Every structure is written in structure tokens, then in C-alpha cells.
Amino acid sequence: MPLYRFPFRAMASPCALAIVAPDADTARCAADAAIAEIARIEAKYSRYRDDSVTTAINRAAGGAAVAIDAETDALLDYAHRCHELSAGAFDLTSGVLRHAWDFRRVPPRLPQRDALAAALDLIGWGRVERGPPSVPARASPPAASGIGATAPPASGTAIGAGAGWVRLPRAGMEIDFGGIGKEYAADRAAARMEELGARHGLVNLGGDVRVIGPHPDGTAWTIGVQDPRGMGGAAVAALPVPAGAMATSGDYERYFERDGRRYCHLLDPRSGWPVAHWRSVSVVAPLCVLAGACATIAMLKPVGEAIAFLRGEGLRYLGIDAAGELHTDRTTPP
Amino acid sequence: MAATERTLLAAALALPGMLPAGAAAQAMPEGGLFSAKYLYYRDWQPGANRMTVEAPSFYVLAPFAQSWTVEGSLTFDAVSGASPLYFNVLSGASGEGIHDFRKAGDLKFSKYFDRWIVGAGAVISSEDDYLSRGGVFDLRWFTEDRNTTLAFSFGGAADVINSTNGIAENERRNTVEFLFGITQALSPTAIIQSNLTYSYGHGYFNDPYKSFDTRPDYRRITAWLTRYNQFFPTLDATLKVGYRYLDDSFGANSNMVEAAWVQPLPSGFTVTPNLRYLSQDAAWFYFNPPFPSGRVPDQPYTTDTRLSAFGAVTAGLLVAKALPDGWTVDLKYEFYRQKSAWKLGGDGSPGLLPFSANWIQAGVAKAF
């Protein structure tokens, strides 16, 4: 059976689907369903869209609780586990740091001390209030605006069927699904194509790859790891991935250099400063959401701790540390 | 649950839509499998070749109608040789050699539901002097995160024995067996399984080819088997260990431990060395040589070495290679050695020669 490729753009990234199908129509049908699913998730969780769930939650920060549906509740649950298991390194509320760090500014400059302190003050997954439908939240100071945090929303801010509610306690706090949204979309898209009969293929959302199944002859897909200092997306290594997913987190997507030091866009939510342990970490896991979260968490940890964490999760990985040294679980070089 | 506390995989799997709708598609084999194997078995004691078995077998598993599978196997054994010697004094083969041919087949249907698998099957095995017919019903249930599986099965068999020497004529034996098992994923790399099996058989248990062999007319066996598999990502290898305690109303209680190391290598090779140790008590009606000392007419009596007290070690190696297009070939060698002195505590049945056996099995399989 032939392999069909469908390149497209989503979530501000180049994306592609690869599907082995008996004919072009079958492949097209599966691809359309997958792309529709990705578009749905992007629309629902993009912080750039006025009508997204993320925007609704952020807009209500410091005010009323926002009712959320089961899907959003599940994503927040997952983010919560990531936060717990990374000792706070993974934090859905850390996006506000980008107000202090402007990676697009020319010439670049380091953040103002008080701007950074103000941003750090708005970070803290632990302070986010959540609850099931119609169960009052734990005691918390009454909010300045109308509905107190002690009552779930009655109307107005409700989004979808009530599976619970979430409230950001301070005005200016923000959440975003940057660390898991794209990976979640890759997993959902792969599951959608599998439901439509696809058995061999993959979903690639800007380098977050979820495999549907191996090549028809059973051989694994070979997924390249981008050279974090290479030009034009050259691969520094490749890993065979017969099933599951691979995601990479790196310091090279957005950064600036100043006084000979590289400041990358991956910021530690605890210090507010860019991390400098790794150039990139690629993780192979059964699901893309898992690979993505673990790659992000590993990036935020020193080399030894990151490796111990990935081993503890039982995952395959390939990391390139700040000195350019390769670290991998593979006994043979990739 | 340990998995949800220590690792993220369970949390990730709890997200909606991670798996295709209808988890049936997840648990169920997506393709079929055909395999053909050829087994060569030979056992011996010092100075004597005993028995050889050559057994080709075939196995097919095929999914059909969305959520069903059918699987079946056929085995043909050609057996030649004598039944095991039991005396330390070799006095030539014990009577006439056995030449036999066995055909066995089974067929099983399974239906996959969201959180359940229900299966039912039939088994038949026939030899010149023996016919066994049985059935099995099993039920498996998964938790929503699939970290825990409970299994329950019930089986029964009805056997008819007609020995070629005329000792057993239309003798019958009926057996029922229950199994309860639990499998728990402890982490993405560790899994533990524990199975409790109880079987009760009633009827003819004697060996009609052995003089004076008289056994109780019922046998109750309770076996508790626990297995643990640990995957080591850095080595890409899996360690499998297991322990079984078996309680037998015949008195042949035993302890068994085993370990295997599954090591994938480059170019599609996998090698699996394995080691097993068994220590067994003698049946309460087993009598040490010389034959037939200690026998009281009409009281249970046997000299069958399989019911003596012994220790046994099996060492084996399986080499498999994956080929393109879903083909796999494998070759397995196992060596078995049984000695009285190897029993735990060393107090095995006296007067027995060590017993050795070899298995060589070659197989080819195709996934489709």
C-alpha cells in the first residue's frame, strides 16, 4: 500500500501527516478528520484566540471561577501530575514570564529586576483553585469582583458541560497549554486516524511526533533529532520509533545571545531565568503528551537529575547537554 | 496505585481520546498470527536411551467481525521409546518399548468488549490408548487505565483410558480446574502477575504400563504462581522471574523458581537464556527401590520416578530473529537434569539414576 503525506500548518508550526492507505481517498478521509481534530484543539486552547477556553480562564483571573468541561478538566489534572512529579518545574502558570523576557526585542536586553519579580509573583500552579461542579472551594479570600471563589459559577462564564471549575486567584495570572497542548493534539489526531482504519503512519506537529503504527513491513519509523546548533534543521541523531511518540524540547527555538551567553526561551518558573543544562532533550514514550512533558521537565533539570527522572519514568531519551555531549539510554550509539 | 503515584504514564493515559474509540480495538490483536513449530525431545539415563518425541505443531490466531478472535492449534506427536527407568540397577529396558502417536487440537473463540474479554473453547487429544475431551471458559476484566487485569477461568476434561496391554479398559477420569489471576502494572517498566489454580480430578490415575501401579482415585492440586517482569530501558532488556508453590494431594508438593533474560540485539535478533529449578517431595505412596518392596496389595503404590523426591534444573536458550513482512524464526534448546540429591535439603529419593532430557524446538511464525 502506498504512503500518503499531508503537509499543513497548525499551532504556529509546520506539520505533516503520513498515512499508509489502500488509496488516496481513504488517506484523505483520515487526514481530514485528524486535521479537523487538531484545529478543534487549537481553537479551544490557543491563548491567542479571544474565544478560547484559555482566554476565558485567564480573563477571569482574580475574579470568578470558570466552569470547564471534562476535556479541560482532564488536561488540568495531567498538568497537575506533571507539576507534582517535576517538583514544580512544570508549571502551567509560568507563561507570564514572557512579559519580563522579550525574546523578539532588538537589541536584546535582560529583564528589569522588578518586572521579573512581578512576573514571578504571578506564578504558582499550587495557588490555582479548582473543584468539581457545585462543591465550594476551600476557604480563600473573597475576590474583588462579583462572584466569590467560594461559589462555582452560576452562569455566564460556563464553557461546555460542567465537569468542574477553575479559578486563578490573582488578576494577571495566566495559564497556557504550551507544554502539552500540541502533544495532546498529536495523540488525539493519531487516535482519530486509527479509528478510521489507519494502521501505519504518523502525526508530526512541529517535531512532536506520534506514531500510529510502524511501516507495513513492521520496521520502525526513523525519527531524526535536530542538531541544536546545526543549520537548516540538520539531524544530529535518529531514533527508531515503531510505536508511541517522540517529542523534543530544545533551547534553539527562540533565544538571544548577550555578552557571550545564550538566553533561551525555556524559563525555570521557580527562578524566572532561562535554563542552561541542556541544548535539547528528545524523549520516546507511549504517548506524545508524556514524551512532551518529560522532555520539558528534563530540560529544566541538571543533567544527572534529568537522566534519573527519565530513567524513573522508564523512557528512552536522547539529550545533548550544554557542552554538546550526547546522553542516551541506548547502549549502542544511535 | 503505585503506577499513578510514581510515574506520569498513567496520568497521560487518563486524558480523554488518547486511544481509539472502543478500547476493544486496543486490547484486541489487530492482525492474525500463524506459527509452525517442530519439537524434538529425547531423554536418557546413564547407559540407556529412553524416549524420543517428535512433534510438529501449528497455531493460528485470526481476528474477525470487529471484536472476535478465533485461535486454534494442532499438534502431532510421534513417540518412540520406553517409559523411564527407575532402578539404579540397569536390567535392560523395562519391558517393551512404547510406540505411539498422539493428535491434539484445540479451538477457542474470544469476544472483546470495552473492559472485558470472554472466551470459550474446546480441546481434544487422542492417542492409541487415550482419549481426552475438554472445554474451557474464561473471563478477563480490565480496569479503565488497564493497569490491572483480573482473570477467571473454568475448565473441565473427560478422559477415557484403554491401555494396549489390556490392563485399563474403558477407565475414566474427570477433571475440573479453576483459575483466578491478577495482573498489575506497577510502573511502565514493571508488571506482576499472580495466579491461583485449583484442580480436582476423580477416576483412574494409575499407570497401566507399570506393574502394581495403584494410585488414589482422586487428585487435588493447588498451585500458586507469581511472575514479575522488569524492563530495563538502558539495556533494552527484560528480566522475567517466577515462583510457584504446588500442593498435591498425592504428596508430590513442589517449589519452583525460574528466571529468564530477554535481550534484543541488533539486526532483529533476540536471545533469551533461561534457568529453572524445581524441588519436589515424593508422593506418599511412592516406594523406594528395590521393587516391589513395601507394597501392600490394594494399597496405593508407585515406583514412578516422576512421583519421587528430586531436584531438577532446566537451562535453555531461545534465539529468535525478526524478518521483514512480519516473519519470525526461532530456535530453542533446553536441557533438563533431575537428581535426587538436588532436592531442597538434599533428602531426595534414594536409588535413582540421574535423569536427563533435551528439547530442541524450531519455529517459524508470520503475522498477517
Instruction: Enumerate the strands of the largest sheet of chain A in spatial order, edge to edge or round the barrel.
Output: 1-2-6-7-10-13-14-15
The secondary-structure class of chain B comes to mainly beta
CATH architecture of chain B: Beta Barrel
User: Any idea what the CATH superfamily of chain B is called?
Assistant: monomeric porin ompg
Uncertain segments of chain A = 134-161
Describe the structure.
- The complex is a heterodimer of chains A (334) and B (368).
- Chain A has two domains: 186 residues, T-fold; 115 residues, Orthogonal Bundle (T-fold), CATH 1.10.3980.
- In chain A, the strands form four sheets. In chain A, strands 1-2-6-7-10-13-14-15 form an eight-stranded antiparallel beta sheet. A three-stranded antiparallel beta sheet of chain A has the order 3-5-4. A two-stranded antiparallel ribbon of chain A has the order 8-9.
- About 8% of the residues of chain A have low confidence.
- In chain A, a hairpin with a 4-residue loop joins strand 14 and strand 15.
- Chain A has eight helices and 15 strands.
- Chain A has 334 residues and is an alpha+beta fold.
- Chain B has 368 residues and is mainly beta.
- Chain B has one domain: Porin (Beta Barrel).
- Chain B has three helices and 16 strands.
- Chain B has a 16-stranded antiparallel barrel.
- In chain B, strand 1 and strand 2 form a beta hairpin.
- Chain B is globular, with a radius of gyration of 23 Å.
- The two termini of chain B are 37 Å apart.
- The N terminus of chain B is likely disordered.
- The interface between A and B is medium-sized, with 37 and 32 residues.
